[in-house]
Structures are given as structure tokens and as C-alpha cells.
Amino acid sequence: MPTERLSPADFLTLGNALCGIAALRSIMVQGDFRGTDEQFFAGAVLLMLIGAICDLFDGRMARRWRSTPYGPHLDNLADVITFGLVPAAMTLAWAGFASQWALPAMAAAAAFFLAIVVRLARYVTAAPEPGIFRGMPAPLCAFTVVSIIVLSPPIPVALAAIACVAALAVSRLPFPKPGSRTLAGMMVAWAVVGGLSVVAWAAGIPGGGEWMRFTAATELLAACTIPVIMLRLRRAMRVAHAVPRTRRRTLRRPRRVSVRRRAGERVRTGRH
To answer: What keywords appear on the UniProt entry (predicted)?
Structure first.
């Protein structure tokens, strides 16, 4: 049988995977993030942002023009590389390969990577729900980990936060899909602002570090508030569409009359 040719959307998905491989190479060059040149880390974040834009538009391109059976599988494999393997490598490089936190960092990175793999496998096999994802999407998980590393809290706090992100990835909490043009435009605008702040941070422009930390803080705040907002919206929709319960009216039970009382009434009325 003739093989299916790749569509333009599939090539865009392969671009996402290529960005992930290049970002992984950028992390491997420096070996240890702490005390080294920030340009390698900034380059990896920029490549992840480009991969996220490719991941955002490959589905739209497939729906508009043509999709192939390879599309969903290619998309999952690319997301595993860009949004699963690269943040795990960033975690290891930031914690340090020879520090006392190397083993806990390995455990947190492995938990995050496996959570992304399970989340993507569940997304392919589960029935789609209109307008929402179940569990935190892989790109949002990846950039949440990047934001944690950029804010640079104490290593135990950072590793615990990364473990929480892994738990959110495999959870059943609802997250909105970027289906509308408004939400997609907001995501592209955030990616552009994030890319500019990363470039300013890596180039050493005055105020670039503060702007980079501000961008990371806003992303972390959004990752924490989105599931809370979605849960409240779904609860409000359930209350609005719920059928009001009517109070059941029960019939009065007949009074029980004892045998002696009935016999007495028969005697008084003359019945035998």
C-alpha cells in the first residue's frame, strides 16, 4: 500500500522536535547552570518558546488543510522531547551534577519526565472533551519548571514545586484549550514578551534580569490560578444547569387501631 506523505502540519511538528533537540544540546554544553554563562540557558528557553509556537499552530494547520495518521503520534513525540526531556535536563543542570542535591534533583526530574509521558499517552487514548484539557498541558508544565528555575528559590523548595507540577500534569483538573483566536493570540503575545525578556537577560541589558524574573513570576501565578478559575467556572455551570429538586409529599399513614378497640366499637354499635 502507498505510504502517507507528511503534511505541512507534520513538518511544523517536526520543527518542534528539532527545537527540543537544539535546546537539549544547549543545556548539555554548559553542564552546570550555576555560576556559568547564562546565554546557554537563555538559548534553550528561546528554542522552547519557538517549539511552543509550532505546537500551537500545527493543529490549526492540520484542521485547515490536511492531516495524516502520523500527526498525533508525531506531536506526542515532539512534546516529550521539548516539554518533557528539556525541562528535566534543566533541573539537573541547575541543581548541579556533583552537589548534595544531585540525587533528589534526579528523582524530581525523573518524576516530571514520566508525568509528561503519561499525560501525553492519556491525551491520545482518552475521549476528547470540548474546550478543556484534563491535567496541566505539557507546554505549561515545561514553562512552569523554567519559571521556578529562573526565580531560583532554595533547591529543596524548587524540587518540591517541580514535583507538584508533575502531579498537576497527571491530575484530572480542567485546563482551557487554546481554541479561540483570542486565547491563541494571548499565548503568542506572551511568548514574544518572554522571548524579548530572555534576550535582554542574556545580553546583560540593564533591567533584563528583573524583567525576566517578573515574566517568570507571572507565568507561575497563571499556572496556579488557572485550575482554580476553571474549577469555579465548572461548579457555577453545574449549579446553573442543575434541575431544582422538588420536595416529595408523602401521604399520611392510616392510623392503626388495636384489636381490642375494634371489638369495643363493634359491641357499642351492635355488630357481631
So the answer is: Membrane, Transferase, Transmembrane, Transmembrane helix
Query: Using alpha carbons only, what angle is made at residue 149 by residues 220 and 75, rounded to the nearest 5 degrees?
Result: 70
Class of domain 8-241: mainly alpha
User: What does the alpha-carbon distance between residue 145 and residue 80 come to, in Å, rounded to a whole number?
Assistant: 15
The pLDDT, as a whole number, for residue 35 is 41
Proportion of the chain above pLDDT 90, given as a percent:
23
3 state SS of 244: coil
232-241 b/e with 16+ CB inside 10 Å = b? eeeeeeeeee
Domain spans of the chain? Answer: 8-241
Q: For the residues of 78-145, what is the DSSP string, one character each?
A: HHHIIIIIHHHHHHHHHH-SSSTTHHHHHHHHHHHHHHHHHHHHHHHHSPP-TTEEES--HHHHHHHH
Q: Which residues of the chain have pLDDT under 70?
A: 1-4, 29-38, 98, 179-183, 237, 240-272
